[in-house]
Amino acid sequence: MRQLKRAAEPGTRWHYSTGETNLIGVLVARATGKPLADYLSEKLWAPYGMEQDGGWMIDEN
């Protein structure tokens, strides 16, 4: 990820990056032993009484 060209300087513009999002999911899963969706449900959605959690698009590969 470090070698990838940035769309803009950090902090100057918002840019969604699937690679970074996927990396965070892997890191959270390894650190907690739970899939990201389960961890967020336990720590975020349920404690705040949210009726629906976030939407997840999962690559089959």
Q: In terms of topology, how is this protein built?
A:
Elements: H1 18-32, H2 36-45
Summarize the structure.
The protein has 2 helices and no strands. It has helices spanning 18-32, 36-45. The longest helix is centred in the middle third of the chain and has 15 residues, at 18-32.
Report on the structure:
By secondary structure, this protein is mostly helical. It is built from 2 helices and no strands. The protein has a domain at 16-51. It has helices at 18-32, 36-45. The longest helix has 15 residues, at 18-32. The mean pLDDT is 84.
Keywords:
2 helices; 0% strand; extended; mainly alpha; 61 residues
Binned strand content: under 5%
Q: N-to-C terminal Cα separation, in Å? A: 19 Å
Secondary structure tally: strands: 0
- The number of helical segments is 2
Coarse shape: extended
Summing up helix and strand content along with how strands pair, one would put the structural category as: mainly alpha
Provide mean pLDDT, rounded: 84
- What is the H/E string? HH
- Using only CA atoms, what is the Rg? 14 Å
- Sketch the major β-sheet: none
Low-confidence segments: none
Helix content: 40-55%
